[in-house]
Design a protein that fits this description.
This protein is mainly beta. The chain has a 14-stranded antiparallel β-sheet with strand order 8-7-6-5-4-3-2-1-14-13-12-11-10-9. It starts with a helix and ends in a 12-residue tail after the last strand. About 5% of the residues have low confidence.
Amino acid sequence: MKKSIVFFLFILTVSFSPQRENAYDVGEWFKFRVHYGFVTAGYATLEVKEGTKNNKKVFHAIGRGYTTGMSKLFFKVEDNYESYFDKITGNPYQYVRKIDEGGYKKDQEGFFNQTSDKILVKDYKNKTEKTFEVPNNVQDIISTFYYLRNYPTIDKLKVGESVAINMFFDGETTKFKLKFMGREDIKTKFGTIPTMVFRPYVQAGRVFKEQESLTVWISDDDNKMPIRIKASLAVGSIKADLEAFKGLRHPFTVKVKP
């Protein structure tokens, strides 16, 4: 589990731009169980709160991930990702990345200037500051998830079509793309849920491969919430399944109750 639990959840997630009613609101909360088959490796949570930036109310999204049980003994993960982003445009003002993954640590904050298309990254671990030039309307890893959930024509995508967005992560801007694979009803602890299936792709580079062996199932309703994420590995696969939720903005569609 070289990548963090939270990283898996966000980098592989959804495809979905503000100009339609938000799929989420303050108070939304998700919890995911990350597992190899029946063995639980850890948990991750996503939560939307309200914050203030530039004297205006904004969304403050927080993602946390941690290993449990034997997984914690072999590879301890304690991750915290945060993003402050605009309630109308979805564009981020600031991100926080504080992680510990098997001794690999980062403690950073990034401050966006969307007018000048620059990001000031403060690295508290290495006591450095650096400014990066970025494309217009670039997203951070957490804001990407929420920005894409509101994509105006997501329900009209045809199989094989994709949505692309510029995302800043680890000092680089990557073209993050999600390809629509079709629709599928999947069985969960909440019942049988109609979903949209996506395959994330990114540009080749130092951080990502050309094609990621990841699949994401998103609820086929107005919430566009992640239900399941699967990452195929060299040996077997790792999954993240929705374990609990609250504070949804829209009704949750379940075809067959458990």
